[in-house]
Design brief:
The complex is a heterodimer.
Chain A (H helix, E strand, L loop, with lengths): L7 H31 L2 H4 L15 H9 L2 H32 L5 H13 L6 H10 L6 H26 L2 H9 L4 H12 L1 H17 L2 H6 L8 H8 L1 E2 L2 E2 L1 H21 L1 H14 L1
Antiparallel strand pairs in A: 1-2
Helix pairs in contact in A: 1-13, 3-13, 4-7, 4-10, 5-7, 7-10, 8-9, 10-14, 12-13
Chain B lengths: L17 H6 L1 H31 L1 E2 L7 E2 L3 H8 L1 H32 L6 H8 L1 H4 L2 H11 L6 H8 L13 H29 L3 H9 L4 H29 L3 H6 L11 H11 L3 H9 L2 H19 L1
Antiparallel strand pairs in B: 1-2
Helix pairs in contact in B: 2-14, 3-14, 4-9, 4-11, 9-11, 11-15, 13-14
The chains are: A mainly alpha, B mainly alpha.
Chain lengths: 282, 309
Amino acid sequence: MTVEHRGWRTRLLTLWLPLGVSLVFALFPFYWMAITSLKSNQELYNRKVMPLIVHHPTLKHYVDLLTETSFLEWTWNTFLVAVVSTAISLVFGAMLAYPLARMRFAGATMVSFAIAATYLVPQPLLFVPLADLINRLGLGDTLTSVMLTYPTLLIPFCAWLLMGYFRTVPIELEDAARIDGASRLQTLTKIVLPLCGPGFISAGIFAFTLAQNEFLYALIFLTKTEVRTVPVGAIAELVKGDVFYWGQLMAAALLGSIPVAIIYSFFVEHYVAGLTAGSVKG
Amino acid sequence: MTAVFAPAEVRRRPAFSLGRWLEREGVFSWLMVALPVAFLVLMVGYPFFYGIWLSLQDRPVAKPGVFIGLANFVNDWHDPVFRQVVVNTFVYTIAATLLKMVGGLGLALVMNQDFRFKNLTRALLLLPFIVPTVLSTIAWQWILDPAFSVINWALKVADIADPGPSWLGNPHLAMFSLIMVNTWRGLPFYAITLLAGLQTISPELYEAATIDGAGRWTRFRYVTLPLLKPVIFIVTMFSVIFTFSDFQLIYVLTRGGPANATHVFATYAFDVAMGAGQFGQGASIALSMVPPLALIILAMAIYMRSEKS
């Protein structure tokens, strides 16, 4: 290849410069979040101070956030909702994916069409009827309302991804198990599922971050402090009329992002696999 | 010789066995898919059709609805805000998608070289996409704050403008800002997915092209682009659907303002349904997204089919 001979100047222009600009663009808002949350109000609202660094760091906004608001409660709600809806989605996703990947049955085309259609239906299309439905079921202001609605956003993706993983299991393994007298259910639970761990991790991580990200349903269904999730709590309660509590907002934004970022950093390869599975393989 | 017909052994049908019945492919499959399918029908299918029914009613919140036919849609048609919403949504979707597509492809090409800390860089670049949108948008709101915007501080220090513009207060700049923030969030998704697509292209193809005398541009134009086209297409379609129906980002940054300059279908439907309590009217606004989205999906399906054949 000729690349090696081009020298550092080309390398700088075609690699490091665009990469550097992209990284600054991508990461600056997080830097800004972090330093804003550490500034005192005097520093925050003083236009004469150079804003790019913190001159007198303080944890006051974090203390206020954790003691004066229900932030911890919101964090717990967000976590609980994300875990439950991810679990439901993985189970239902697998129940849909296995027959579609391996079996012939009447209506299979219809089922896979329904999954694709669900995937493509954007949330804002359904929030008005769902709001009415949730009210009639008496589920307004309960975490159950979002635990029931989030899986509708997550199941299609989980099913699609798991289908790909189920297909990679050699059919001979399943045949062998069947010949040895295993039932279909046993074949699934004893042979197929253990081999598809990475698929469940990918789908699970993806579903979990999506559930943490959801805003519209939470905004509509959860109007009481004690049931709110972090995004809705921050928007609804750290902004009072026209007054923005910027320090606390940034602290909340940062603390709310950290759990997702940590989980993501542990499973980044799985996450990328999940992200690209649909488009590259499909 | 008289043939002696031995009475044929009556072949007894095996007794019905529940276990064996459950093992039949068709039965087992439906036992598996029945529950999730019922769930999706109840939580997606039913609301979808119920939404259509709502859109045909005058239905204030907490009151019984009255069937009024297509009156809500006629209202939309004559509503100047609705017309602006249509224009806004298209401007927002087209501009943001183009930026994300071109920027994402560029970044993917840059990333498709060998360099140190490649995995770390990829992980960091993907952060905007994984962090909850509302939380990162709050940071952007502060970056674009009318009084304390860091961009305006930089403009002032660089002696370009003092005071700087009101990023979210001016109608055109507000739309511009939204498009930038949407690009910031969505570009990594394009870049990482297209990068994965690039990595599936065999290096031998490039070597062959180079031997045939193809330069950088020619290799990109005649090797990379055609092979990447299906991936670009799928990514773009997904992105278009979710940009077209975007809610969070706009709700947090501008709530559709100033003077409806950034209202899109989702935020306007939300305002009408939840703010003004007009469920029927709100449902009709949300449903107006369906025809353009259906056209997009149809185009995708037709394109994919023609590519495969």
